[in-house]
Amino acid sequence: MSDFNTTKNSNQYNIQWFPGHMAKTLRMMETEIHNVDASLVLLDARIPLSSLNPEIERITARKPKLYALNKADLADPEVTAQWIRYFRAADAGCVAINAKQKGGTAAVKAAIEKELTDLLARRQVRGMGGAKIRLMLCGIPNVGKSTFINTFVGSARAKAADKPGVTRGKQWVGTERYDLLDMPGVLWKKFDSKQTASNLAFIGSIKDDILDIEELAMNLLDQVRCNYPEKVAERYKLNAEQLQLPPFELLEAIGRKRGMLISGGEVNTERAAIMLVDEFRASKWGRISLEKPPVREELPEEDDFDGEE
Ligand code: G4P
Fold this sequence. Notes:
By secondary structure, this protein is α/β, with parallel strands linked by helices. It has a domain at 4-182: P-loop containing nucleotide triphosphate hydrolases (Rossmann fold), CATH 3.40.50.300. The chain has 12 helices and 8 strands. It has helices at 20-32, 54-60, 77-89, 102-115, 117-125, 145-153, 194-202, 213-227, 229-236, 240-243, 247-257, 269-281; strands at residues 4-8, 13-17, 38-44, 65-70, 93-96, 133-139, 171-174, 178-182. The strands form 2 sheets. A 6-stranded mixed beta sheet has the order 5-4-3-6-8-7, sandwiched between helices. Strand 1 and strand 2 (13-17) form a beta hairpin. Helix 7 (194-202) packs across helix 8 (213-227) and helix 8 (213-227) crosses helix 11. The longest helix has 15 residues, at 213-227. The chain is elongated, with a radius of gyration of 21 Å. Mean pLDDT is 88; it is low at 1-11. The protein binds guanosine-5',3'-tetraphosphate. The site of guanosine-5',3'-tetraphosphate (G4P) has 19 residues, from helix 6.
């Protein structure tokens, strides 16, 4: 049975991708949530809402929780600061991190212990201050869970993979003070919007094999040139007129500039599209956020994100 469905429409793809192992992971999470003190939900700092899995939200609602906006080093620091304010205004614990760096995991530990202040105090009173904190680590595929665990634990235990859908089982990983339950990456059955699906595809959380790469590259260019025109122009040496071209012509113009031609002088648009998506994912376009927080009134002014992740 096919585990995905893509339906073409006027300018975007309706993408659904929910292999059987993801349904199994959700069932496993339902059980394991009872065995942990709190959950740590990794989100992608470039698309915090699109990477917020409603199924994970539902399951983790029963326990204290911290959101970590990972890959903050790839996102626009100003927008990340807005996201932190957005989450905190909703009374949700939230930190921005780069899972490759120790500073990121240290920030998570401090924030988790703040979320668990009451529990830790109760344990202290009962003489159980030495009990380990049990955390469930969850998030969508490719969000950086393995990387986080390796940095957290201080050695390469979990295998980081660049492909979503590389199936892993749950595993407990221990440190002196923590037991971390690493869950496989999981999406959800039906994305509520095509934008969500596109965002997940742009950052590489949906298996590329099921995507039309040219469509993906054109949508990505179209979206990014609205908010960061100077970054696209600079990377691909485009003048103001070229930057306004219809998406397919823009793809061709970039391919031509890179000398990606086939016989007859035509542009190999598939090759150009692969190059564009790869370069975006490798942050060659610069630090870009694909999503801004919805406007909420009375957000607090202060934040402690300095954009240095
Ligand atoms: P997963 O377990 O959630 O599926 O994700 P994983 O840790 O495998 O990470 C997916 C990719 O994202 C890896 O890149 C990893 O290095 C990268 N990554 C994770 N966290 C961060 C972060 O905070 N910042 C940046 N810039 N990248 C991050 P890769 O190219 O697949 O692997 P590698 O060659 O880097 O090992």
